[in-house]
Design brief:
Elements: H1 2-24, E1 31-36, E2 49-54, E3 63-68, E4 73-80, H2 87-92, H3 98-104, E5 117-123, E6 143-148, E7 152-153, E8 159-161, E9 163-173, E10 180-188, E11 196-202
Antiparallel strand pairs: 1-2, 1-6, 2-5, 3-4, 3-6, 4-5, 7-8, 8-9, 9-10, 10-11
Length: about 200
């Protein structure tokens, strides 16, 4: 009996050691963000409020980097500043126009990759005074891809966030030049992992 207990204990220890790396290898959270403000005539009027669109719940003060697509760099950070926001809060507290509520819910997508969870964010660190490109076609200041705060952009354009991901981007016009649906795909470079898909919608107002 004593030998059996010893063998069982040793086997359990080995199993726990093997499981530990798996437990640490949590999937990184990729999401989107938009920079928005209250509708015309709203009192008080809010301007330049960043909102996160995330696939999973986020803790207050969780931090994310943004992807400046024109400058091809990651900038830290946007930090979660609210509880998860429902549509009533977006309409009544922030007084967003309906078009931008639709953007935050990714309502323009024909096949949403996930249901968005929306949070108010605040700018910290380098992002507080960061200057985006003012080129005519640039719009990374309006929103884009969110990544873990410690993610790195590699020289070949891939993203390192625990694993390494090949980053692909496509923008689809929605009826006119002022509305678009941007789609980011992060495909794991190694193995057969499922790609992470992020969509960010830009409606007019």
């Amino acid at each position: 009996m004593q030998n059996w207990i010893g063998r069982t204990t040793a086997g359990l220890a080995v199993a726990l050691c093997l499981a530990a790396p798996l437990a640490r290898a949590a999937e990184p959270t990729f999401g989107g963000w938009r920079n928005l403000g209250s509708r015309d005539g709203a009192e008080p009027a809010l301007r330049d409020v960043p909102f996160a669109l995330l696939p999973t719940p986020a803790a207050r003060d969780a931090r994310f980097s943004i992807y400046d697509r024109e400058s091809k760099r990651l900038v830290c950070c946007l930090q979660v500043a609210s509880a998860e926001l429902d549509d009533t809060a977006l309409r009544k507290v922030y007084q967003l126009p309906e078009q931008w509520v639709t953007d935050l819910r990714n309502g323009r997508s024909a096949a949403r990759p996930w249901q968005t969870r929306v949070y108010e964010m605040r700018r910290t660190d380098e992002l507080i005074d960061y200057g985006f490109s003012d080129a005519p076609e640039a719009y990374s200041d309006l929103g884009g891809l969110l990544l873990p705060a410690d993610a790195r952009l590699l020289p070949d354009g891939s993203v390192q966030a625990g694993a390494t991901y090949r980053l692909q981007f496509r923008s689809t016009s929605l009826g006119d030049d002022s509305r678009a649906l941007d789609r980011f795909i992060l495909q794991p470079v190694q193995g057969e992992g499922k790609p992470a898909v992020v969509e960010v919608s830009y409606g007019t107002y």
